[in-house]
Amino acid sequence: MSTIRQEQVAQRLVEELSDMLRRDLRDPRLSAVTVTGAECSRDLKYARVFVSVLGSGDQRDEALQALRRASGFLRGEFTRRARLRVAPELDFRADEGIAHGARIFELLKEIEAETDGPHPDPD
Question: Structure pTM?
Answer without folding.
Answer: 0.80
